[in-house]
Design brief:
Layout (H helix, E strand, L loop, with lengths): L2 E5 L4 H14 L2 E8 L6 H11 L3 E6 L1 H14 L11 H20 L3 E3 L8 H12 L4 E3 L1 H5 L3 H10 L13 E5 L2 E5 L29 E8 L2 E5 L2 E2 L2 H14 L4 E7 L5 E7 L1 H17 L2 H19 L6 H13 L5 E8 L2 E8 L7 H4 L9 H11 L1 H15 L5
Parallel strand pairs: 1-2, 1-4, 2-3, 4-5
Antiparallel strand pairs: 6-7, 7-12, 8-9, 8-13, 9-10, 11-12, 13-14
The structure holds arginine (ARG).
Arginine binds next to helix 4, strand 6 and strand 7.
Length: 404
């Protein structure tokens, strides 16, 4: 019998998908649940998959790989989609696709399936990442195909004895991992409405955050966060600890109108406490250690890198080539940034580096100034030479200032 590997979250959609793939395509379904730091009970999810009819149910904890191989390169590239979204969901998809392909290879499955709808970016990311890694595997998206309404889906679930989540269904569609949480649908679709408090599950509201600011110091070595408040930590626990501190202070709420790859604009709410803090801290150390031209060039790479992640091209050659440049750019990004978290904001209030290009003796207006003022005169004469020449020969008449 032909086998399919299905990305399984344990929710209603993917549970119904297990059954639907069996009935509709006559497939043996193998599920895979990947832990990327969302709050899921892996063993319960595995049992549930078997109960709804999967022949095998795999679970894998990929949190370490996620932070080291996906989150870190994006952080070092300062990759924020459209300048604002830290790309949590987008970064997770290529890794999940990679794990799916691994299971397919181990089990001899020839198909991959996922629970994405036909309207989002995730379907593209799964398909394209899978194609890049295993061009021979075919991808099925049951939810895009089955065209059941919510009511029909629930009826289908009841008919097949699939557990339906109890309680009032959340009005939102969410996705989460250790780098961030995305919230869509319901009232959030009214772009002019402030998100109600129940849209947020991680962050306290800035009004309810502590009245005392929380100060942090984040240490970096060659662009890698390595310490928090003077304590050395591996990347995963460091992100987890920052997550806790930032969410308690209401930091990391993002409200954006986003341009989806498939052509429409959508209103997106995110909670990304650790990402917001780490991006600010990383930039602060780069500001100290990268020269002006390096910063300008890196700034020009940034939107391209973010677009590649967002658009599902993680495994493409351009992303890999840019990653090599970004890694090389981080050689001296060593030092630390101090941040003040206060009622929803994360502000950089200090930074230092052993490789700092900021030299106080050069910058000071006080005593101990080593700046060579005599060099300024000649510099200005030559810097202004093209404009002086233009003025003499071309533009003097037009720009002339007449006496009043
Ligand atoms: N707009 C974000 C993105 O495209 C988040 C998508 C959330 N996905 C989801 N299945 N709820 O990356």
């Amino acid at each position: 019998m032909t086998k399919v590997v299905l990305a399984y979250s344990g929710g209603l959609d993917t549970s119904v998908a297990v059954r639907w793939l069996m009935d509709h395509y006559d497939l043996e379904v193998i599920t895979l649940t990947v832990d990327l730091g969302g709050e899921i009970d892996l063993e319960a999810t595995r049992q549930k998959a078997l109960k709804v009819g999967a022949v095998e149910a795999h679970v894998v904890d990929a949190r370490e790989e996620f932070v080291k191989d996906f989150v870190l390169p994006a952080l070092q590239a300062d990759a924020l989609y459209e300048g604002i979204y830290p790309l949590a969901t987008a970064l997770a998809r290529p890794l999940i696709a990679q794990k799916m392909v691994e299971v397919a290879r181990r089990t001899g499955a020839s198909l991959i399936a996922h629970g994405c709808t036909g309207k989002g970016n995730d379907q593209v990311r799964f398909d394209v990442a899978t194609t890049a890694l295993a061009p021979d595997l075919k991808v099925i998206a049951p939810i895009r195909e089955w065209k059941m309404s919510r009511e029909e889906e629930i009826e289908y679930a009841q008919k097949h004895d699939i557990e339906i989540p109890v309680g009032k269904a959340s009005p939102y569609s969410t996705d989460e991992n250790l780098w961030g949480r995305s919230i869509e649908c319901g009232i959030l679709e009214d772009a002019n409405q402030e998100p109600p408090d129940d849209a947020y599950a991680w962050t306290v509201s800035p009004q309810a955050a502590p009245d005392e600011p929380c100060y942090l110091e984040i240490g970096f070595e060659a662009g890698v966060p390595v310490a928090l408040n003077g304590k050395r930590l591996d990347l995963l626990p460091l992100v987890e600890e920052l997550h806790r501190l930032a969410r308690e202070n209401g930091v990391g709420r993002i409200d954006a109108i986003e341009n989806r790859l498939i052509g429409l604009k959508s209103r997106e709410i995110y909670e990304a406490p650790a990402a917001v803090v780490l991006h600010a801290a990383h930039r602060a150390v780069e500001d100290m250690t990268l020269a002006r031209d390096s910063l300008r060039f890196k700034e020009s790479v940034r939107p391209t890198y973010a677009d590649l992640i967002y658009n599902g091209l993680w495994f493409g050659a351009l992303r890999r080539d840019l990653a090599a440049y970004v890694t090389s750019s981080q050689q001296h990004v060593t030092g630390s940034a101090r941040l003040k978290l206060y009622k929803g904001s994360a502000t950089v209030v200090g930074r230092q580096s052993p490789y700092s290009l900021y030299e106080r003796d050069l910058a000071t207006y006080g005593g101990g100034d080593i700046f060579d003022y005599s060099a300024a005169e000649g510099f200005i004469a030559l810097w202004g030479l093209p404009l002086r020449t233009e003025a003499r020969n071309q533009t003097a008449k037009e720009l002339e200032v007449m006496p009043a």
